[in-house]
């Protein structure tokens, strides 16, 4: 377990103990995972990694990440590209 520090605008930086950190964008898409895989050994995986979806699934997160934000009740834009999904990254 490591201590991470994060900032919340208008407050002092906060520190918490964590073994896994998931960074989300403003649309609540996971974009980065930092995980302690063994004591003092960490891995960092970003959304453009072919294994990103597999790693998210292993953490219990089942999301399809696209590069164009969606507005609920609207259709998926024709030019939207899947970054990662149930079958991994699309090239």
Question: What does this protein look like?
Answer:
- The chain is mainly beta and 91 residues long.
- It has one domain.
- The chain is 8% helix and 38% strand.
- The chain has one helix and seven strands; from the N terminus they run E-E-E-E-E-H-E-E.
- It has one helix at residues 52-58, and strands at residues 2-6, 14-18, 20-24, 30-38, 41-46, 65-66, 82-84.
- Strands 3-4-5 form a three-stranded antiparallel sheet, covered by helices on one side.
- A hairpin with a 7-residue loop joins strand 1 (2-6) and strand 2.
- The protein is flat and about 40 Å long.
- The mean pLDDT is 77.
Overall average pLDDT: 77
Number of strands: 7
Percent strand: 35-45%
Low-confidence stretches: none
| Annotation field: number of helices | 1
Shape: flat
**Helix/strand/pairing category:** mainly beta
Major beta sheet, strand line-up = 3-4-5
Give me the strand/helix succession. EEEEEHEE
How much helix, percentage-wise, in residues?
under 10%
Main sheet overview: 3 strands, antiparallel
Q: Give the radius of gyration.
A: 15 Å
Report how far apart the termini are. Answer: 35 Å
- How many domains comprise the coordinates? 1
Summed up:
This protein has 91 residues and is mainly β. The chain is built from one helix and seven strands; from the N terminus they run βββββαββ. Strand 4 and strand 5 form a beta hairpin.
């Amino acid at each position: 377990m490591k201590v991470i520090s994060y900032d919340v605008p208008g407050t002092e930086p906060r520190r918490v103990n964590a073994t896994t950190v998931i960074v989300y964008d403003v649309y609540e898409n996971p974009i980065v995972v930092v995980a302690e895989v063994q004591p003092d050994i960490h891995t960092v995986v970003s959304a453009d990694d072919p294994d990103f979806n597999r790693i998210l699934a292993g953490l219990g997160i089942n999301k399809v990440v696209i590069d164009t934000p969606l507005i609920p009740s609207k259709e998926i834009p024709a030019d939207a590209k899947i970054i990662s999904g149930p079958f991994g990254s699309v090239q």
